[in-house]
Amino acid sequence: MDRREILTWVCCATVAAALVLASPAAALGVNWGTLMSHPLLPTTVVQMIKANGITKVKLFDADSWTVSAFAGTGIELMLAIPNDMLKHISSDYSHAQDWVKENVTKHDYDGGVNIKYVAVGNEPFLTSYNGSFMKTTFPALKNIQKALDEAGVGKRIKATVPLNADVYNSPENNPMPSAGDFRSDIHSLMVDMVRFMNSNGAPFVVNIYPFLSLYQNPDFPIDFAFFDGGGRNLNDQGHQYTNVFEANYDTLVWSLKKAGVPDMKVIVGEVGWPTDGDKNANLENAKRFYDGFLKKMAEKDGTPMRPGHLEVYLFGLIDEDMKSILPGNFERHWGIFTYDVRPKFPMDLSGKGNNKYLQRATGVQYLPEQWCVLNPDVKELSALGSNLDYACSLSDCTALGYGSSCNNLDRSGNASYAFNMYFQMQDQDVRACDFEGLAVITTKNASGNGCLFPVQIVSAARPAAVATAPAALLLAGIAAFLLL
């Protein structure tokens, strides 16, 4: 090799090394949920995902429009079968065959979509579901894996079931990871299921949320939810735990060990921090969480029980203004990008601590810069309450809740915010800014004091009905509180 060849080789090797160092930590994945009133074109979102070096995406359905956008990108995809389809898939094997044909093999060709997993259901054993999917999940899983095998793709595409961390626990009198085991009411089912998945080379996909540990327990030590120390230190048989994520993960590892599959692959299917909708859901805490988490992923230390690389999917990609808020108002604010696909805060996916913003989506178009607000000239406000209830029940007023970004508005501000959210949700239809004469359209930006009055983007799809009955009732309750 002559001197010029050596210099060229050194230069290329240096560039390659730099690219590796700049790539997302351990090839991070991201969850892309689409429960939003104004979605972008899937191709636009996929281009943004690629621009940020994200190589794995987890979906919550198998919508062909979305899946097709990944063709030729090489991005690894996890498709999903929603919980409401589990009974159908489990009841007849031919239904599983049809689903695989329509949603997997259809996209599986040279230059097509790189499908890696099929998620059968989503957290189907949540205690809040009261056993609704207990009898259908495992049969559906077996049918899908059999259909994948029969289609000739089962060796590279595996069926799994993303599960919430509530499927395992440690007893109250010994709250240590080593005491962990699968929940007593589903123990035999879980043992059978993990052994089946493990025998087929499928991973255990678990969703771990340090934020929820804090949200559900007012006495939870806040620093234990993060990765920068300063909090409690848990000692379990010589293993030190300084954060709840590692303790939770290793509780699962112990549960798998006791189920007879100690080496089963584990994927963290969802992990993240919301930015609004609760006193602890804000930009500052989200940045603190991600900075610490991404640094940990880059170090590839793993956990005390599973040292090394961890495979994780961040939750989530974009805020979803049509998600159910039954778990809490924060549910609509998990995105690392806003509704109009702007990065919320500086974030270095490589975990190297470079304080820079991710690349936003290009070509996003907005509706005209106008807002719907409470008419300041109206003095008779007796109908304000019922109209505010209506606006919130058919839009997204979660930012008005206690501890949220717009919680400091007065009565008029609350009304204006609710009216504008409904107005934007309805694509600024002039008929959507009346409210029995209480509202008026203005070109003066109503945002202020940290509260954003958004202007909606041009949707790539027709708007759908926003609030289900339970969600509408909850939002009406919020509205009633705002008028106190």
Write the layout of secondary structure elements.
Elements: H1 3-22, E1 29-32, H2 42-51, E2 56-59, H3 64-68, E3 76-81, H4 86-91, H5 93-105, E4 114-120, H6 137-150, E5 158-160, E6 163-164, E7 168-169, E8 181-182, H7 187-199, E9 204-207, H8 210-216, E10 234-236, E11 239-241, H9 244-258, E12 266-271, H10 283-299, E13 311-314, E14 371-374, H11 384-393, H12 411-425, E15 439-442, H13 469-482
Parallel strand pairs: 1-2, 1-13, 2-3, 3-4, 4-5, 6-9, 9-12, 12-13
Antiparallel strand pairs: 7-8, 10-11, 14-15
Helix pairs in contact: 5-6, 11-12, 11-13
Q: What brief labels describe this structure?
A:
15 strands; alpha/beta; two-stranded antiparallel sheet; single chain; 484 residues; disordered N terminus; nine-stranded parallel beta sheet; 13 helices
Please give a structural write-up:
- Strand 2, helix 3 and strand 3 (76-81) form a beta-alpha-beta unit.
- The protein starts with a helix and ends with a helix.
- With 484 residues, the protein is α/β, with parallel strands linked by helices.
- It has 13 helices and 15 strands.
- It has a 9-stranded parallel beta sheet with strand order 5-4-3-2-1-13-12-9-6. The chain has a two-stranded antiparallel sheet with strand order 7-8.
